[in-house]
Each structure stands twice: as structure tokens, then as C-alpha cells.
Design a protein that fits this description.
3 copies of one chain form a homotrimer. With 670 residues, chain A is α/β, with parallel strands linked by helices. Helices cover 30% and strands 21% of the residues of chain A. In chain A, the strands form 4 sheets. In chain A, strands 10, 11, 12, 13, 14, 15, 16, 17, 18, 19 and 20 form an 11-stranded mixed sheet that branches. A 9-stranded parallel sheet of chain A has the order 5-4-3-2-1-9-8-7-6.
Chain lengths: 670, 670, 670
């Protein structure tokens, strides 16, 4: 069964309404709900008094309609009775001000009392629901995030550092605290990188970012351990915030879970733009799939305009269904829409559900109703099928944190750069995995490592062995600059991969507004366009590599900007400048060719292609993200799962915001 | 006598200067001064020691020249000896930081000790001046404002809530604290909506805004009570900050006063623009007149460039006099200029008076001197005359506060929207009253309720009965969304007025930059222009109403945007989209026609028209706000009060920044 | 010997590297290093334990290569053991938040314990190095700055005020605390001008700015006294931050030093622009020379891209050498480059030195190597030579602080205005001294006093006597407005110089965006261009002066904007409006002519000219700041010191970013 459901808050509505809601869900083909992740004050209205009967009754009504249940542990939003026990329970912001009550996620993730009270409610829930027939799994907390700078965290950070470095001498040496006389003679002297401290030591700041991330990993682990023990038959997940969230190393947070889940809103208050960028959405998905290199769930799929103070642009007709299928195309094995009915109360009054305030089913309910019917037919065929990219892109949280501390350029953004490189492959319908540095690369033909700023020995060695064995590796500017302690290496850049690149960085220019440069390609297969580059321009000196492109302007005109090095059976391309689509487009095509990777399919701009494999059967998702009908030439006979199995040949016509799921016609027994 | 005066600070100048100043005032026709509202440290130089003799001497000198006195209670700016008694006396900002000494308005309005010390100085002043022949009235404090977030206020807020809701159950239910587990089990748990708390519960936030407003109302009431008891013959007022100020419900603050007063500076540091918008100025005045539905005073009429750190644009020649007459045109019955002489010391060194630092009378003094002479002739005719608008616009502080909490759109502003609708009537010379929702509407033919977001039963009923009896009502987008607790209603929008409108809101689109739509009118009398709309676009579904306009673009092209519903003897027009002048202009004309309201007069753009009635005699103010001479065609024979009574016929020519006060020629016995 | 060196941090590198570094320095002609100014934690690793042997060894290695040493006292960056002793040691920001550890300059400059511990380390260093043969001088601390708003400073401020005003009555009168009831009845009531206090009393705020400046002067003095006593043979200096730094009265800070030093980075993170403005660089230098009216040092001359979080634009080829010679051209007698090798650790990882992280000498090392060779040949001729400007510009820190408090206009900037006026003379190759108001002016023919807002009696008298004796004085708008206590004068503006100007300010207009005016000159020698003016426009009324220019627009069209007054043997020109190059250009030419000053040389735009005199021998620096070769016509026969003495006649051709040092050919005995 393909899990298809909604996030539901029965506690926010009169009990007499529950059965009506459940009927409407059932009618729309929904078979799973997430419950209770913000219900702490209802489940434990005063300390130590637990009330689950309301929840039991809600689950009963749902299960009678064949709807199964995922339970959320409620620790993301603590009750007032708890937080009024001590101001110390509250998170401290990076400006040194302590959070106050009234929103959510205001707790310090390292506070022992918060851990203790959280442990108790999770244990109570686990014991109560361990053997409940309708409960299938758990979501821990909700959208972990936000660094805390409180004294409890400062002490925990010092303890964390002691474990990491054993001695203060090592720490002082790794951080280089001789600089500005910062040598620490006692662990307790080590500060947090508060804004009131100004630009901090990069080593300290990177370790603090890791520590803050680890704090949530540990808080989650405490809950996971309880659930593993009490509810061995249930899955355990957490709802992540996708590629965009930048305060937790998601690879680490994913480790203790069965699978990860994604909350993603292509249109919400914080993405208030006319157009959705489907490639950025795709990157969210590929990142989630990469966290554990396995399929994942959509725990919150957009159901309507999303906003707190601001109404987002309304999802256009067809978009909700299209986005939900896009999730599946990238590896989602379960989808829940957030939320069932728009809340009348609280901060999220403007966050729209499938039903309106007045309980009226909206056009959005209609779209999901339609998709529910489709999935009842085809869901089984898709469930468990997988993607098989031959290319991978390395997402390094260490580098991401390091660029948060020192962006290098006012307009350089590590995630934007990574997305821009990703986008070139996306446009050419070449699927990629998004994986962590250090992962075994032997399954790939092509690996892309954009701005791999913090580079460890082991990652460098893994890349070396990948290339030696025939892999194609792309490196971009500012790679290999830092060691694990965020110190600059004392060898020519790109440091540990300078040998692999066969080139070193002679110097780097940082371009202010009004400055730009462009490249001239030396290889005909890259075309004759001269792509504009800017932001950061490294002047390269080959030490064995060939020159792929040179600068055309300024004092480094004619000097190398891109090099290509043969290494073992493979090749390494190093790109020393930041460009745009006209740079990364030709590069992606050329690199794919070098690696022997072929696009999935030819399709016009704005049409996305992705594939899932059920053993040998391929399901090709063709998604029209434009507001015009698109004609897609077909390379053979296909059947479209979504229109009941009619045979297609010649041209596929897709209406705006619509899709097809193609499979080979000759094998498909409709 | 028409009161015409200045705000004067004798304590800031050598005593030997006072008589010279008084002579110059007398020469300019000034007959009233406001004194002492920043004189606390001079009247009570140390706690409990009161000194009024300096003030007695100043009043003596003034009264010898026939100048009467309004006294300010000095509580807006406490002395250093008081505020150094305890840090608790200081206001806390919304970021949680406590104010410090050195400006003004730094006090917590709920602090019991501040109340106590304030009560004592007011009592002393009241007793000393109760029977003084020259003293005619009182101004309480100065420009009440600014919310305080201190612990004293938190406790006072909890007490205020207890009075409002009686039980925590009711509060939890009204605010919907089930959302995010915020249920309060003890009044003391209820937080203030500090920025450190993030986006708060809308119910809590709206109640806090009301509470903060009520705090000043109560602080004022404490002072009013003393003055009523001790000085029954004196009037009591407060100087308001017009339509623009948004932190106090001015209708509530006005209730305990005899009349309200306005401080208004068309040109100051915070309105640093080349051009003054006379319609926005007119709105300030109409709001003040509406607060008690009676005439008001100008307590601070601009006398020169106004600024603290920044010099404002200098008032152009003629502007000071023009603005002063504009005040009268809208209902001012007294005018005081701020200030007499520019201060040499303190924060307001750049706030210019009628005299310069060097005591030189400026060209500004000259303008006021001229006006003084005019008012000596015509003032009596105007005093007590009133305006009689047939249209009213509803200003809802509840809605305004609610939009502060959730603006709905980054570029939506409730006051800007209200002004835009107001402006359409202003341009067509149709006078309006600005009144509170819930006011008896039976005196009006047309009522405009822009974005009446928070809507109570009683207001809805009042509007229903108004329409039923033949009134014309205009509603605009996002009306009727919230109940009194700032929860969304559970019925189709516009909620309580959906029946009145004969239409419901199907869905709402929020338009990001680069998105827009336009309307096509279905009625010929609205013209063939297709006005641009944007920001928020509601798709309407008539349930009885007719369609007045439809959208032309996007997925809701052809769907209704404006509807017209007959209800009883009246009509309701609902406008679902935010537009500009080309939308509200035709609408205002059409609605006025529907309501049987005729423009006062025809005049070119930039020429304002207003009228005051003294029993049956009409005084028509024609004000040229442009920097060009304007020719205005006359519809009959008139006499201009300002040029000594010459007869006018055919065309009136007004120099730039000049005006005429017309009255019917045949009746006016010059 | 011309001192030519680098800032070096041996403590940041392995000891075995030191000799290699010293060899490379020697090879580049470097003969001096600055050491130890961030070495506190290495010199005093725990309280009271001093370790100088590592520094002794480093100095030994350097001195063996003929490299001399300047020692920095390390108080700019305290060790962790010190700052962990008490939170009170940390500076408080103007928002009331206390600084935390992890950067530098986090200390309160008035804290007694910080003074005490600083005194001890300075004393230890002084005793240890008093008689060391290689040590030639001292730098106190590093880049003094930042105001502190802590309680210790509040008390120190109150004490400072008591010394300044003796009685509270005087203070209350001078500050005009009657305004807003701020009269202080106890010194302890006086607050600091924190942001939480809002717009402060201008008198209080100006005194606080002076006090904060004096705090650093006193902290420096404490150290200077120790060094004078212990190391009478050494010079003592501090590294200033040039004209741009605005929180310390640099004239006061310079007084206790032998000479001042400058840190200046034409390209760094905070000046992230494509182009460098060489005139602004020149102003930095002229300001430093003016502080003591003598030559100075460059303690930190840029050596590469400079940034903390952001890489600056890379210095273009030739720029480092050109800037270094520009320093000499303006009076530098010693130059040290910051820094030797780019740091691998700490906040300044992106601040590039002459050597890269990997110890590779860069192209930048190459440039400096070349210059080292040149200076070995010509340095002696330049050392001790001086500039002899006939014009001076007054830089008033009182006025600068006053404009920080009240900028008068959103786009008015005192330093930008001063630079704009300076720039007009710079472009015409007329050298100026930048000196303090009150300085003896008798040596000059022309004195320029831009926006001399705070004006004392003695400065006014000095200017009067200067003009009376034949000097030409230029005054600009907003001069003479304030007295020493930042109160506005009670006489017509420009106050104390109204008589000198022969004109008074009738009124002032402040121009918002979209407003502008222009001037018409009444004197043919000023040309027929009508320069645009704006920002602040004063309408002048001559009381004896002639009219030089009138306004062309708005209500003051035809009214005087510039006046010229004969006074004694001299003349005073008053300019009432803020203009640009087309205003100040003609004015500078005309005023120079009036004063009998001739340009040094004719040269195209972008070519700077400066001269130094060694007794009667003139060295003319001709610097090409453009990226094109420039042809400069010569007015006689010259020799270029930099190309070995070839004779030049007719035309000098300078490559981009290159220079010549010319001297009269007939006298120069190559």
C-alpha cells in the first residue's frame, strides 16, 4: 500500500466533527494520518498526569475508516506549565538574549531537566501505543533546529571539546589560538561564538556549529532509544527541512532513524515569489534520498498557501498534485499533506489545509481526491521502487558551516553554488544522488564536489581512489582550503587535492560590483560561448593538468581558469571561477560524456524527467512544471500509468502542471 | 473668540526675555499659550518640594497681554531624581531591553510608584491653578504612546485578562491554545508577546495591544479625575498624534476628554519628502474630529522645519498659514503653533519655532502675524460651526492591531489602504467622517468599511440595520475574517457580513512581486478602464449579489472580484482586490451616486474643498495646495471672507499655497 | 636609513621557520619588523609568569640579518585567563549588551583592574627590552577604538564631568537640561547616551564622545609614561586608523607620542569596491601628517587582499608599490607591510601577507622586493624631507562628533563633505595640511574650514587674526552653529564668524530626494557653469559681504548662496550650500588664486602630484593611479630618482600604477 495521508489535529476541533473528517479523508483515498506532535499539553495537562483517552478515541474513529496512524512525540512545543518552571529551560539566541514563551522550539536542547521531562512523556506514549493495531510508526519532535547559546550549552560545548581534543594543548594548536592571544589554559574559559564576541576564531566557530548539530542528534537519540525498546515493530523517523536548512548535519541526524521524512513547501511565506523553481525542489528531494541513500517519506506535503504573518502565493491549479508526484519521482514512498483543515487559532492561521476554516472542501481537496484515486490504482507498482543515478554530488555540512562563518564573498553562497551546479545536470535530465563526503563512491561514474572547502584526509583519499579507478571528478573554486579544524592548510591550494587536480591556485581575486570576467574554452566540445564569471576568480597554474579555459580580461587574462587532469584511469576537472548556467551547462554535458552517462530522456525546458526502477521495470516520470501545454517527442512506445494504460507513440502532450508516468508499452499488461 | 496661540517654554529662556516674547505674541494676534508640559523638574525640583512662582510670574506677564493659558501636566518627561529611584520605573522594549534615561516617555505606564508620583504633581498643579483667571484648560501628559513589556506590565496584563475572560478555560478556548500546546493552567504563565518569543498567538497579541492601549487610557483617567474634581471650570484634553499613530485605540483615549487635540507636522524628520500629501493631512484631521464626533483643537500646528537629528524640508512660503486654515476647514476650533522660539538646547534643537535661536522673528512669524489679523476679523464667525458629512469611513483599531500582528501581505498596510479609499472621496470633494465601528450609522447615506478584519456581532448588526434602512455600504477584501479574540471565524468569509454582501470568498491569492491582475467592470457607469489590482485578490462566489467586476488574468480570469447586493432598502458593494486610484476613483463616484451624495464643489486637482456650517450659513474653504495659481469656476455669487468681502463671480483665482473662505454673497452683510 | 619592513608574528609559526623568513626579508631589503602586539598570552601565559625567551630568540635571528625591531604592547587583545576573571572587564555596546570573549578590543578602557594588569605587562616588557640593541621603539596597543557604555565608564564619565564643569548648576546650564525636565540634582543621575535612551541631549552626547576619546588617551598615557621612564632611547607611537576613524580625537591621542603611525588598506573587506579613490587615500595621509604637523610612519601598509569573512578585491599589479610610494609622497618616513605571511588560524585567515599560507613568495613579495632595492638607493635622500603646503584644512573632531549626534540631513556626512572640499584641491595639485581648529594659522595663505559646526571663541579669534593679516578663509554651511557644549548659539548664524563672513544665514532648507537647486556665479572668473547644489541650502543675507553666487530655483531663487567679505587684509568666502566637484573645483581654483597659491604641477586626471623638500632640494612625486599609461608634459629638465637618474625633458610617460620621483636635473649629481 502506498501511504497517502494528512497531518491531522483532532484536538483542535470539536469531537463531534472527527467522524465527518475521517469520512472525507476516506473518500479522498487517504490511508494514514500523523497525530499528536503538538499535543503535549493535551496528553500531559499537568506534570505527571497523562491523558490519552481523547487520542484513543480519535484513533478509533480513524482506524474504523482504515486510516493508520503515525504518532509524533510532542517535544517541539512544550506546555506552559513546563516552561514556567525555570527561565533556564529557554534557548539563548546568538545575540545573547534568551527566548521567551509563546511560539515553539524555545527549549535548550541540552538542558537536563528538559531531557528528563521529554523522556517521561515519550516513555508514556510508547508504552500506551506500543501494541496499538493502527499505529505504524513515530515521528520524533518536529523540525529540529536553532542553535542555543546558553550557559548550559556553553558547559556542554566545553565537555564536547574535551572529548574531541582530549587536551587543551591539542585544541590550542588545532584552533591556532596563538592568534590574538586566545590560548585557553582552562576548558571553562572557552566562550561561545556569540555576536557580542564579534568575528570568532574559525576553528571554534566550526566546532560550535558541529556541537549544536550534535546536541539535537543526541536529544533525538534519547527518544529513539525509548521507542526502539518499547515499540520494536514501529518505524521511527523525523521530519527534516530539506536541503535548505543549514544548522544541523542532516547526515548525522538521519543515522539513528529508519528513514527520513521531508517537510517541503514550494510556496510559503519565506519563499514569496511568483515562480517556483522545480530544480530547487528536486534538490530538496534528492538530498533527502541521499541522507540514508534510500527512499524517504513526505511528512508534510504542501496543501495550500503557507504563512504565519503573510499569505503565500496560492498554489496554482494542478501544482499540489504535481509536487506530490514530483516527490514520488525522487523517491518518496509515503506522502502526508499538511494540514487537513486550516487552523482557526494560533500562529499558523494563514497556513492553509485541504479544508477551509469553515470545513468546506476546497479545490485543493479536489486535487488530492483525484490523486488518491490514482494511487489506489498504481501505488503498489511504485512502492519500493528505487532511483539509480550514476552521478553524485557531495554535500558537505562542514564546508557549509565554514562558509557561514567566512562566506569569502558577499554574494557567495555555498548552497546556491551547489544548487547551480546541480541545476545543470537537472536540466539535462541526468539524475544525481546527493551524498556526504567520505561516502563510498565506487557505484558512481561521475562525482561533483562543489566548493569542498573543508576537506579531510579520508575524503581526499576516497576521491583519489574513485578517480584512480576510472571515475570523473569535478572540483570547484575554494576546495581543499581548510582542514578539519577550519585552519587553512599549509600547502598550495586546493590542498589535499592539488595533486589530483594537477594544478594549484596561484592567487584569487574577489570581484566587487561592477567587476566581471569571462572565460574562453580551449576545447571545441565546450562550444564557443564565452561564459561570464565573477564573485571569486582563481588564477590557476597547471602542474600536470591541461588547460580547459582561460580568463579573457583583467590582469590575469589568458591565465588558466579551468584545468583537466588525467589521474589513474580517471579524470579531474577543476573550475576556478564562479559562473552561471552558460558555464555549468556545457561543463555538465561534457563531464557526463567523459563519464559515459546519458540523459534519461529528451524534454523541453520546464519539463522534468525522473525514473524509478521496480527491479527491471522502469517508471519514467515526465512532469510539466510550466503553465503551457508541452509536447514531448517519445523515443519509443510507452504506456502512461495515469491515463489507464493507453499506448503512446510519437509525441506526448502534457497540459500545464500535469504529468505522465511512462513505462515500456510492450511489457505493461494493462 | 477663536483661540490662536503658541506652545511656549518660558523656563527655557531668561526671565527678562518673557515680556518681549509676550509683546511679540500679542502683536501677532496670539491669545493663548500652552505651558509647563515639560516643566516637572522646574515645578518639583526635588521630591515633594513644589515651585510654581516662576510659572505664576510667566502667566502674569502673558495675561497682562490678554493671553490665556492651557497647562500641561508634566508626566511625559519625568525628572532625573524620580527615574534614578529605581530601574523598574523604565519601560521595557519589545526586544526585552529596558529603556534608559535621557529622552522622554521612558516610563512604564502601569508602574504604581510612577502613578503615585504623577498623581501628586497633578494634584499640586490642579490645586494651585484651579481658580487662576487666565487658566482655561489642561493638556494631560504629551503624546501618549509606546507599549511596555516589563514584569509589572506582564502582571497587569494577566490581571486585565482575568477581568476580560473570568476563567482560564474561556481564555484558552478563545485563544485556541490547544494550538502548539499553549494551554495555560495558571494566569501567571501567560507571557508577553516579546520579539524573543517569535510570532505569537494572534489572540494573545491582539489582547496585549488592547491592554497596552488601555494602560494609557487608565493613566490618563487617573489625571482626568483629579482635574475634574479640582478644576471643574477647565477643559481637559490631550494632544493626539493623528491618524498615523497606531499603538493606542484613540476612540477609547478620547472618551474621558472634553475634546481632543492634534499635533501634526506635514513636514518633519519622519516625513522627509519633497511634497506634502494634503489628502493624508485631511485624513489626520477627519480622524481627530471623528474621535468624539465633534470639533477639536490643534495643540501643535507646525511652525517651521521639524527634526531631532535631521532638519526637515523647510515649509514653503504660505504653507504654514494654509495648513492652519486646513485645520479649521476640518473642524479645528483652536490652533496653537509649536513652538514659539527654537530651542537652543536638547533633543529638539532642530525643531524650528516662529522665532529663531537668536530671537529674530522669521518669515514664518510673518505668516502667522497675517493670519492672526485675519482671525481677529473672521474668527467669531467660524467658531463652533460644524461639518456635516453624509459619508463615513470606519476606522477599526482592532483590525489595525490585528494587521500589525499578521499583515497578510508584505506590502499590505491597513492605514495605507484606508487612506487610499479615503483619498478617492477627498479628490471628489465628498467629505467623510472617520468613526469607530459600532457607532450609530443612521445619520449617514454611505458607509465605507475598508478591510474590517476584526468584526464583532454588534458592528455587523449595526451595518445590517444601516443597509436595511437604505444605506449604501462598501466592504473591501479581508473583512469579517476574525472574531473579537482574533480567531478566524468558522463560516464562509466575509464571515458575519457574508449574508449582507450576498457573496462569499472562494479563495484568496496573494501576489508576489511581478504578479498582477486587472478588473473588467460589468457596469457601464464604472467606465471601460481596466484598473490594475494586486497584493491580495479574493475570488468571489455570489450567493445572491450581482457581479460588478471580474478578473481578467490568471487562473481566476472571469471570476467575480466585485459584487453588489441589494439588502433591504440599501445596497452592499464588496471589493475583493486591492487596487489604486483608478479602481477607487470610479467606485467612489458610483457609490456616492447610489447613495445620493453630491460633491461639495468642482475644483481642479490639488485644490481641496471643505465646508463648515454655522446654523444655515455655509463657509466653503477652497485651498490651493499646489505651487501654481489655480483658477476655480464658481457656481454662483460668493463673498471671500479673507479679502474683506469682495464679491466673486465666474472664476476664483487662487495664488499658490493660498485659500479663500467663500460664503453666499447675497446673504453676507459686509 | 629609510625604515622598510613588515609586521611579523613568529609565535604563529614553527621556530625552525624563523631563519628562512628572516632570510627572505633580508633579500627583499626589509630592515625592520613590528613584533608582539598580539603576543600577550605567549609573554604572560598565566598571571604573573612572564616568558620572553621565545621573543628574544626571534629578535636574535632577525638582528643577525640586520633587521631592527619595534615592539607592540599587547593590550589590544587580552588573554583568556585575564578576561575570564570578571565579566566587568568587558566593554558594553551602545545597545547595552556586554561584549563577550573571542575577538579583540573587548576590554573596558576605564576598568581599574584592566589598567593594573596592562601596567604590569608593559613594565615587564619595558624592563626586559630597554637596553636591547635591536629594539628601536614601541607601538602602544593596537588601533584604539570603540566606546564603552559600562557602569564603570558611567561613573568615570560622571567624574570627568565634575572635573569639566565643577558644579551641577554649570552643567545643567550648559546642557540646557531644563529641556524635557532633565535637570540633574546629583552627579550619579547622569546617564550614558545608550540607544535604549533614544535621541539624547546633544550636550551630554558630545561630552560623552569626548570622554570616551579621553579614556583611550589616558589608557595610552599610562603606558607611554612607563616607556618614557624605562626606555628613554626608544620612540613611542601608536597605529592610527587614518582620517576614516571617527571615535577618538586623534589630535589628542597624538600628543603624547613621538610620531603617529598609520594603518591603511585601500582595498579591504570594508572598502569592497572595484576602484580605489586615491584622493581619499591621500587625505588619510595628510590627516596623519597633520596630527602632529610632522612626518609619520606607515605601521601597516597593505600587503594583499584584506578581509575577515570576505576576501577583498585583490590589489592589482603595481598597486602595493604605488600605495607605498604615495605614503612617502605625503610624509611617511617608515613603512611596514601587514603582514609577512598569511595566517593559517584565527579571524584574519583571509588577510593576505607577502607570503602565502604555504610560504610561497607571491607576486606581491616581488613588488616589495623591487621597492626594497629602490629604497636602498634613494631612501636616504628622502628621509627627513618635509612637505610645505601653503593651504590648510581644519578637521574638527568636536564638529564630527556633533554631526554623529545630529547629522542635520540623511545624506550629509561631515567626513564626506570635508573630503569633497579636500578633493578639489587635490585634483588641482595644491597640497594641504589637515590640522586642528585652534592651531596657529600664520604659516598658511589659505585656510579651509568645512562645516565647522562646533566653534569656540579661541578658534574664531585665531581665524579672525589670520584673515586680518591677509589670509583667505573658506567657510561652508552649518559653521558656527554650536558652542563648545553643543548648544546652539543665540546670535545669527554662522554665530561667532558671522562678522568675519559679513553675512548671516536667513534660513536653511533641507532638500529631500527629488529636490535640488543650482547656483549662478556672479563673478566671471568662476565660469558660467551652474553647479548643482542640494542636501542643505542656506539662504544668506549679506551684512557687508559681496555676493558670489545666487540660487536659481525655488522660493529662494536669486537669493545669495555664496558671499565674499573683505576683512582686514584678507578675505572670507562663505558657501551656504552643499555641492559637488563642479562647485568646489572652480572655488578651489579661485581661492588659490586669491591666496596666491600655485599648483605644484600640471598633470592629467588620475595622476597625483606631491612634493617633499630636503632643505632646498625638491622631490616631486608623480603617481599614475590609472590603469592606462599617462603622458605628463614637463615644465623643465628633471631627473627621475627611480630609473637611475636619466634626464627627462618634454614628456614623462608613466605606465599604469607606476610613478616617478623627479628632481631638478641640473642640480642632481648622478
Amino acid at each position: 500500500m502506498f501511504y497517502f495521508g494528512v497531518d491531522y489535529y483532532p484536538e483542535q476541533w470539536p469531537e463531534e466533527r472527527w467522524a465527518v473528517d475521517a469520512d472525507l479523508m476516506q473518500a479522498a483515498g487517504l490511508n494514514v494520518v500523523r497525530l499528536a506532535e503538538f499535543g503535549w499539553s493535551r496528553m500531559e495537562p499537568e506534570e505527571g498526569r497523562y491523558e490519552f483517552d481523547w487520542l484513543d478515541r480519535a484513533i478509533q474513529i480513524l482506524s474504523e475508516r482504515g486510516i493508520q496512524v503515525i504518532l509524533g512525540t510532542p517535544t517541539a512545543s512544550p506546555p506552559a506549565w513546563l516552561m514556567s518552571q525555570s527561565p533556564d529551560l529557554f534557548r539563548v539566541q546568538d545575540d545573547g538574549l534568551r527566548a521567551t514563551y509563546g511560539n515553539r522550539r524555545e527549549y535548550c536542547p541540552n538542558h537536563p531537566h528538559y531531557h528528563e521531562v521529554s523522556r517521561r512523556i515519550v516513555l508514556q506514549m510508547a508504552e500506551h501505543y506500543a501494541r496499538h493495531a493502527s499505529v505504524i510508526g513515530w515521528q520524533i519532535d518536529n523540525e529540529f533546529g536553532q542553535r542555543c547559546y546558553c550557559p548550559v550549552c556553553q558547559e556542554a560545548f566545553q565537555t564536547w571539546l574535551r572529548r574531541r581534543y582530549s587536551s587543551l594543548d591539542t585544541l590550542n594548536q588545532k584552533w591556532g589560538t596563538t592568534f590574538w592571544s586566545h590560548a585557553y589554559s582552562n576548558w571553562s574559559q572557552i566562550p561561545l561564538p556569540l555576536k557580542t564576541g564579534g568575528s570568532p576564531n574559525p576553528g571554534l566557530a566550526l566546532d560550535f556549529a558541529r556541537f549544536a548539530s550534535d546536541s539535537y542528534v543526541a536529544f533525538q537519540k534519547m527518544q529513539v532509544d525509548i521507542l526502539r525498546q518499547k515499540c520494536p515493530g514501529h518505524f521511527v523517523t523525523h521530519n527534516f527541512m530539506g536541503f535548505d536548512f543549514d544548522q544541523i548535519d542532516y547526515f548525522e541526524l538521519a543515522k539513528d532513524l529508519d528513514f527520513v521524512s521531508l517537510n517541503h513547501y514550494p510556496r510559503d511565506q519565506w519563499k514569496f515569489r511568483a515562480a517556483v523553481n522545480p530544480s530547487r525542489v528536486a534538490l530538496q528531494h534528492d538530498t533527502m534520498r541521499g541522507l540514508k541513500q534510500r527512499n524517504y517519506w513526505m511528512m508534510e506535503q504542501q496543501a495550500g498557501s503557507g504563512g504565519w504573518e503573510i499569505l503565500s502565493v496560492a498554489p496554482r491549479p494542478g501544482e499540489l498534485r504535481l509536487w506530490a508526484y514530483q516527490s514520488i519521482a525522487h523517491g518518496a514512498d509515503g506522502i502526508l499533506f499538511f494540514r487537513w483543515r486550516t487552523a482557526r487559532y494560533g500562529t499558523e492561521q494563514l497556513w492553509n489545509g485541504l479544508l477551509d476554516y469553515d470545513a468546506r472542501p476546497t479545490r485543493r481537496y479536489g486535487e488530492i481526491h483525484k490523486m488518491g484515486a490514482e494511487l489506489r490504482k498504481i501505488g503498489e507498482r511504485l512502492i519500493g521502487s528505487t532511483l539509480k543515478p550514476e552521478a553524485a554530488i557531495l554535500l558537505s555540512y562542514d564546508s557549509r558551516f565554514a562558509f557561514q562563518i567566512q562566506p569569502n564573498h558577499p554574494r557567495f553562497s555555498y548552497p546556491a553554488h551547489l544548487h547551480q551546479v546541480y541545476d545543470a545536470f537537472y536540466r539535462q535530465h541526468i539524475p544525481v544522488d546527493v551524498i556526504a563526503p567520505g561516502t563510498d563512491l565506487s557505484a558512481y561514474k561521475l562525482v561533483v564536489a562543489p566548493a569542498l572547502h573543508v576537506l579531510t584526509d579520508s575524503t581526499a583519499r576516497e576521491m583519489e581512489s574513485f578517480v584512480k579507478n576510472g571515475g570523473v571528478l569535478l572540483l570547484t573554486q575554494r576546495s581543499g582550503v581548510k582542514d578539519e579544524a577550519n585552519a587553512v592548510v599549509d600547502r598550495p591550494l586546493p590542498g589535499l587535492v592539488a595533486g589530483l587536480a594537477g594544478a594549484i591556485v596561484e592567487e584569487v581575486d574577489s570581484l566587487a560590483d561592477g567587476m566581471s570576467n569571462s572565460l574562453e574554452f580551449c576545447l571545441p566540445q565546450l562550444g564557443s560561448v564565452q561564459p561570464e564569471v565573477g564573485i571569486l576568480c582563481e588564477v590557476l597554474r597547471p602542474t600536470g593538468a591541461g588547460v580547459v579555459a582561460t580568463y579573457t580580461r583583467d590582469y590575469y587574462a589568458g591565465r588558466p581558469a579551468i584545468t583537466q587532469n588525467r589521474f589513474g584511469k580517471g579524470q579531474v576537472v577543476y573550475v576556478g571561477a564562479v559562473g552561471g548556467e552558460e558555464l555549468y551547462g556545457p561543463l555538465a554535458a561534457w563531464l557526463s560524456q567523459l563519464a559515459g552517462i546519458h540523459p534519461l530522456f529528451q524534454a523541453p525546458a520546464g519539463v522534468e524527467v525522473s525514473e524509478r526502477w521496480q527491479q527491471d521495470r522502469r517508471y519514467l516520470f515526465v512532469l510539466n512544471h510550466t503553465d503551457l501545454a508541452q509536447k514531448i517527442p517519445l523515443d519509443g512506445q510507452y504506456t502512461n500509468l495515469l491515463d489507464g494504460g493507453s499506448r503512446l507513440q510519437g509525441t506526448l502532450t502534457l497540459p500545464p502542471n500535469d504529468l505522465a508516468i511512462l513505462t515500456a508499452a510492450d511489457e505493461y499488461p494493462y
